[in-house]
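Technical appendix A lists one of the benchmark inputs used to test multi-chain prediction within the project. The record comprises two sequence entries:
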Amino acid sequence: MAGSSRLLRRGKLIVVEGIDGSGKSTQIKLLHKWLEARGHRVVFTEWNSSDLVRQATKRGKKKNLLTPTTFSLLHATDFADRLTYRIIPYLKAGTTVLADRYIYTAFARDISRGVDPRWVRDLYSFAVKPDAAFYFRVPIDVAVDRILGARAKIKFYEAGMDLGLSPDPVESFRLFQGRVIDEYDKMTGEYGFKVIDGTRSIDSQQQQVRSIVARIYNETGLAEAS
Amino acid sequence: MTPGRNGARYLGHGLPYTGIEDLKGTLITIEGTDGVGRTTQVALLKEWLEVQGYGVIETGWTRSELMSETIGAAKAGHNLDRLTFSLLYATDFADRLEKIILPALRSGFVVLADRYVFTAFARSIVRGADPDWIRNVFGFALVPDLTLYLKIDADTLVPRILRTRGIDYWEAGMDMHLGTDLYESFRKYQWRLIREYNRMARDLDFITVDATLGIEEIQARIRRPVQALLDSRRMRALSTSLDRLRPLLFEAEEDDAAGPEAPSSAGALRGPADLPGSGEAPARAARAPDRD
């Protein structure tokens, strides 16, 4: 609704999706460097990072106040704020916007938490359609190993502990993120995700990402001055 | 959605993970624009209901544990757009619905909501939001059992606000840039809001009360439909209880026919007034609705 059709878009919107530990953040950082090296103006925006609802989200998570619906709505508010201030103006100005997680994260997580799938899709109907959405697909075991290796602790909501699937955080993470993977897989066709095998080496994944992104710039003939 | 025992239903898609079949209480909402006197009327109504013995829980717009501070800070910063404006309200409302309204209704309280989703609809729609979108966002809300609408016209409202508390940035819709003059913006914005409320009042069968009347007279006009609603619910609950007792009655009659030693409890069950005194289990069933 928010003028996604009326929006005069000159910049590209490229988003990465995948469960925690899928390696998507590493890949988007490398893509960022590459685009800048080629002379593109690039901004980066991250899921759940606007100031508007930071306090409420933090408090809600800390005190476990969140229900599936308030969890969903807080993230939608965060997204709407970033869309208005961090995404749309940059796209209009011809800047490439890289987003670490986009509306598909909300669809996958919120539906896994039990909200109505039609409701959450309609909730985000004001979003701008990305030029490319990469989905980094990894088996659950790989994700668990990476997360435990990197920070040794799995967060409460990341593990879906609010759903009471299992009292053990690692087991709960497996069950919850397993559902999230199922949701991503279901959406892949519907939204035309570019699926990247997240178990391959970092540089071979990056080569694949770069070649797809290069095609996007060439296709529309809107490659920015380099 | 399956309606609850008292006919509770969701406005839209609802909360798939929350059943509403067991809602025993009554949800009454009071709507109307800024400064129309809602809060005064809610307080009077609450007092009156409590004197009658009803358990009453009051809930007000933006007063959720989760969101009230955030909304206050966001409004002070004047950096909300129509999307975040609507979504902050939705988050606040969802928190109050799940943490206050639903548990209270489950326990049989009368819930008085000072403003409800219709306020969000009016404010979002005058700001240009897609009406279907905003209704879907609030699709997890319950349909109220009764919506009271305090109706006023902008020309009467404006001097009243100036006399009492003065004009607030958001109540004047200054974010809509209707003009640089606060007074003019307030008048235009309130006129549009009121038009939206009036439209919903017609389409959604609100009970409209003339808010230009005196406080006592408005309260009297509010109490009538509230009383009628609560009475009808009590009668319905009693007749449900009686239906449940009927098999026991017939059994008792058969026993009567069988011999003179048959228990006499059946004879006591003639009317609702006799219920609480009769046998243990039936009495509990009859007391369950609405009260406490």
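Residues 259-292 of chain B have pLDDT under 50 and may be disordered. Residues 215-258 of chain B form the longest helix (44 residues). Comparable benchmark entries are summarised in Table A2.
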